[in-house]
């Protein structure tokens, strides 16, 4: 067991939920951080709240960062069509949000510094 705190970037998906659960299992006090980045749906954010409650995170915050301002992704741009054909090998889908994870990590590190956390955990898709 550790007395350390970890910040978990919590998207509402399986990868980030697993990362948060593993941090808890390792003995960390876990603070969840989710992002309302202008995505076209709320499913991920609703799921993140449920995951935070289920895992009994010490805190859970959702911060607004409007990556939809400049588009570049069908997840944030209403004028782009969402893909329905599944993942194509070697092709970055139009659901990729430019720089999203870099922005999220930077904000997560800010929260970590403010809360005295010594670890940031996240689960990401290889395409991102």
Question: Can you walk through the features of this model?
Answer:
The protein has 128 residues and is of the alpha/beta class. It has helices at 14-25, 43-54, 100-115, and strands spanning 5-9, 29-36, 59-64, 119-121. It has a 4-stranded parallel sheet with strand order 3-2-1-4, with helices on both faces. 26% of the residues are buried.
Average pLDDT works out at: 91
Which value, in Å, is the CA radius of gyration? 15 Å
What sort of overall outline do the alpha carbons produce when their principal axes are compared? elongated
Strand adjacency order, main sheet: 3-2-1-4
Please tally the helical runs, counting DSSP H or I stretches of 4 or more residues. 3
The sequence of SSEs as H and E is EHEHEHE
Structural class: alpha/beta
Number-wise, the strands total: 4
Helical fraction: 25-40%
Which regions contain 5 or more consecutive residues with pLDDT less than 50?
A: none
Largest sheet: 4 strands, parallel
Euclidean distance between termini CA atoms: 32 Å
Characteristic key phrases:
4-stranded parallel beta sheet, 128 residues, alpha/beta, 4 strands
Short description:
With about 130 residues, this protein is an alpha/beta fold. It has 3 helices and 4 strands; from the N terminus they run E-H-E-H-E-H-E.
Secondary structure layout:
Elements lengths: L4 E5 L4 H12 L3 E8 L6 H12 L4 E6 L35 H16 L3 E3 L7
Parallel strand pairs: 1-2, 1-4, 2-3
């Amino acid at each position: 067991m550790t007395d350390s705190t970890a910040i978990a970037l919590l998207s509402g998906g399986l990868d980030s939920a697993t990362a948060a659960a593993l941090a808890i299992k390792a003995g960390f006090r876990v603070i969840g951080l989710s992002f309302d980045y202008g995505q076209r749906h709320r499913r991920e954010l609703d799921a993140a709240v449920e995951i935070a409650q289920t895992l009994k995170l010490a805190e859970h915050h959702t911060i607004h960062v409007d990556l939809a301002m400049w588009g570049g992704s069908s997840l944030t741009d209403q004028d782009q069509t969402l893909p329905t054909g599944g993942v194509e090998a070697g092709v970055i889908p139009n659901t990729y949000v430019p720089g999203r994870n870099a922005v999220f990590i930077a904000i997560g590190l800010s929260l970590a510094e403010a809360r005295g956390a010594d670890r940031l955990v996240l689960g990401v898709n290889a395409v991102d």
